[in-house]
Amino acid sequence: MAAARNLGIKNAKGDYIAPLDADDIWYPQNLEKQVKRFLATKPSVGLVYAWSVDINEENSLTGDFRASTIEGKVYKTLVCHNFLGNASASVIRACCFETVGGYNCQLNAQQAQGCEDWELYLGIAEHYKFAVVPEFMIGYRKIVSSMSRDYSQMAKSHGLMLGDVQQRHPEIPAALYRLSKSSFYMYLARQSSQCSSDRSTLFWLSQALKADFITPIFRYGLYILFIKSVFRMITKLKSDNYVNKPGLSVSYADLTKRRGSLYFKLLLGNLLHRSLLMI
Questions:
Q1: Mean pLDDT of 164-175
Q2: How far apart are CA 218 and CA 133, in angstroms?
Q3: Which end of the chain, N or C, is more open, meaning fewer C-beta atoms within 10 Å of its C-beta?
């Protein structure tokens, strides 16, 4: 995957690079709006991203989404969590790759694929600012056969990436690295729960607590995932994922039932980002 992307970038002729994974979707006007955002910024901005929704095999919404209004200098915030969410959500100035290089091909050799895009974003964030188009413009497909479902590889990839960052930036407080691990394991727990893999959910919840015992206990998701998994294991029931009506018209209106979650996610992300800027 990393080698294929690097080959494409090497042969690209344009001023911008826009990765798109084979199973994901760009909704109409995604590139137009991201490039317009670029044109309204200064050369110090190296990456523009937009929001994404999770979709299934039929292009229907599953209910999960990735949204953030974090902009500017984002390196420390990005160490804590990948607020861009996936590899198909960004447009990058081509000159950034001359500065930071391409995607890391070594992770595949170590059987640790999964965080190549996050690692690249971190490299860009060391030299450039980020900007956002605060609209749902990308469909991020989640199916059982997706590479992102190989949680062991994903966890190993995250560990290698974070170890390299910590070696290069020992000045960043260790608590932020623990927070990054905890947040990522919570993400793997949520993904496991969506697949009704309850033992896997409980395992990644335990890993989140092991990495950082304090932060997860303040996340309501920890308790919801734990109770849901234990209940399903006891009753041997599998609950269906929330599925919205199919369609390619994605906007705030499609997430009316989740609007509270959207505002909470944006608020929490901005609070974390502003706090880290003061460190």
A1: 93
A2: 30
A3: C
Q: Six-digit token pair at 159? A: 């560990």
Model pLDDT, residue 251: 46
Whose structure tokens read 């993400």? 187
d(CA 140, CA 241): 16
Inter-CA distances, 154 with 43, 90, 91, 222, 240, Å: 33, 20, 23, 20, 25
Which residues lie closer than 8 Å to 30 by C-beta, 6 or more apart? 50, 137, 138
pTM: 0.86
Taking alpha carbons only, the member of 275, 251, 193, 277 closest to residue 67 is: 251
Q: Distance (Å, rounded) from C-alpha 87 to C-alpha 116? A: 9
Secondary structure class of 172 (helix, strand, coil): coil
Burial of 219 (0-12, 13-18, 19+ CB in 10 A): middle
Q: What are phi and psi of 4, to 5 degrees?
A: -65, -45
C-alpha gyration radius of the chain? 18
Q: Angle 151-168/198-211 helices, nearest 10 degrees?
A: 10
Answer yes or no: are the C-beta atoms of 199 and 211 closer than 8 Å. Answer: no
The set of residues, in sequence order, having a beta carbon less than 8 Å from that of 37 and lying 6+ positions away, is 48, 131, 132, 133
| Token reading at 182 | 């905890």
Instruction: Of 62, 71, 38, give the one whose Cα is nearest residue 266.
Output: 71
Going 191 to 219 to 228 to 208, the CA torsion angle's sign is: positive
Three-state DSSP at 25 gives: strand
Residue 204 contacts residue 185 (beta carbons within 8 Å) = yes
